């Protein structure tokens, strides 16, 4: 591949088994998932100028999304439009959000970066993004092997800074110790935080008169959790957990207000405010919205091709792509379709760029982590037009950073 934005270097080495074992020793234990090679042993190198544009897009849009979320605070009609479960509304209204730029301290933008370097935002995961181990540990390792830069090296320090403020005493995910990716993500975050913490399984937690407790009956007052907050509206015990948060007995990280950033409906709110030219955003922010965001609405009003997706869909679940004729072109078949639980959002279509790897041609999704308010870490996912559970991880290094 030879274009302005990316090029691929290297070929998969013959000693994959030994390399996979080395990665496992570094905490990346899901490089191979059964017989499936999740990790691709090649490096995508991003042009330095394009990287700077992705970073600038992330920095500007982080401010835009922060202002958009604060516009939503206290407006229950917008909570409903964004499909935020009603069980969370009291907490959203009663609790103070974080300071500017820090509603969420652990997030990831997902971009389509075209072969000629045009950057377009697809979505923001501001609540429970995974890919942290791939970005913070494996990507610098791969980049060093080929002699390229990796801005991802700062991710661990930013986690340490964030958690020194949040000070969680526990970290949790569902099936901790069994689910390799989520458990490995939790373990890496805890290690990088430098804090002494206990890691727990969400399924072992329970709420006793508003106090969250673990399986040993120990109270937890501060917790980082890879648990999507929207599930509090449907899970058994979700209402009790929401009550623990809204009464201040539990400080959950990311904080509860991250769900507003997480809802894809916020992009429709932001786009609508942009079209009205509101002074909520600065001139530079309006320019960033126009340049980096895609027209997004809560109704399918497009004359050309577009995409529909659930406001809380994850891993490609619920995504449907429509051609300019209005006929459905492709839909995700692997992920859970959350559009049965939450409303849809509709977005102008921006197809992912092609990348030629040793295993064949893929579409490349470019992620950019934002930790403690700082854009800091690239994540490459290689799959189809829809990036779902069957996609692969490929590291992205950067060329010619000044």
Automatic annotation (TrEMBL):
The protein's matches in Gene3D superfamilies, at most eight in alphabetical order, are given as:
3.30.1490.330
Enumerate the UniProt keywords alphabetically.
ATP-binding, Ligase, Magnesium, Metal-binding, Nucleotide-binding
Pfam assignment, any one: GSP_synth
Which superkingdom does the taxonomy of this entry point to?
Bacteria
Question: InterPro entries, per this entry?
Answer: GSPS_pre-ATP-grasp-like_dom, PreATP-grasp_dom_sf
Q: Does the keyword ATP-binding apply?
A: yes
GO molecular-function terms, A-Z: ATP binding; ligase activity; metal ion binding
Where in the numbering of this chain does the Glutathionylspermidine synthase pre-ATP-grasp-like domain appear? 22-395
Keyword Ligase annotated = yes
**What is the protein's name according to its record?**
Glutathionylspermidine synthase
**Organism, scientific name:** Paenibacillus lutrae
């Amino acid at each position: 591949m030879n274009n302005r934005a990316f090029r691929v270097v290297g070929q998969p080495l013959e000693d994959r088994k030994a390399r996979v074992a080395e990665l496992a020793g570094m905490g990346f234990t899901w490089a191979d998932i059964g017989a499936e090679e999740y990790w691709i042993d090649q490096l995508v190198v991003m042009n330095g100028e394009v990287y700077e544009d992705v970073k600038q897009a992330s920095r500007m849009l982080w401010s835009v999304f922060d202002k958009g979320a604060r516009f939503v605070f206290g407006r229950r009609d917008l909570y409903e439009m964004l499909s935020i479960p009603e069980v969370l509304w009291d907490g959203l209204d009663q609790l103070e959000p974080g300071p500017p730029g820090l509603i969420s301290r652990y997030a990831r933008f997902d971009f389509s970066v075209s072969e000629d370097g045009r950057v377009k935002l697809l979505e923001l995961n501001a609540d429970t993004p995974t890919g942290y181990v791939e970005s913070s540990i494996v990507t610098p390792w791969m980049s060093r092997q080929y002699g390229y830069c990796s801005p991802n090296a700062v991710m661990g320090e930013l986690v340490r800074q964030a958690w020194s403020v949040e000070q969680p005493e526990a970290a949790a995910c569902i099936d901790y110790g069994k689910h390799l990716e989520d458990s490995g993500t939790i373990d890496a975050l805890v290690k990088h935080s430098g804090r002494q913490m206990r890691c727990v399984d969400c399924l072992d937690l329970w709420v006793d008169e508003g106090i969250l407790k673990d399986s040993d009956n120990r109270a937890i007052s501060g917790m980082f959790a890879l648990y999507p907050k929207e599930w509090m509206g449907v899970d058994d015990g979700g209402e009790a957990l929401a009550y623990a948060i809204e009464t201040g007995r539990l400080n959950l990280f990311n904080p509860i207000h991250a769900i507003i950033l997480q809802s894809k409906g916020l992009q429709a709110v932001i786009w609508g405010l942009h079209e009205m030219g509101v002074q909520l955003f600065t001139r530079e922010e309006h320019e960033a919205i126009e340049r980096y965001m895609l027209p997004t609405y809560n109704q399918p009003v497009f004359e050309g091709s577009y995409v529909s997706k659930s406001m809380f869909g994850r891993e490609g679940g619920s995504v449907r792509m429509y051609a300019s004729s209005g006929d459905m072109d492709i839909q995700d078949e692997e992920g859970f379709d959350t559009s049965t639980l939450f409303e849809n959002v509709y977005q102008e279509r921006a197809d992912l760029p092609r990348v030629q790897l040793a295993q064949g041609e893929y579409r490349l999704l470019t992620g950019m982590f934002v930790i403690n308010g700082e854009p800091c870490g690239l994540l490459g996912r290689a799959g189809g037009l829809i990036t779902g559970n069957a996609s692969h991880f490929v590291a992205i290094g950067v060329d010619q950073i000044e």
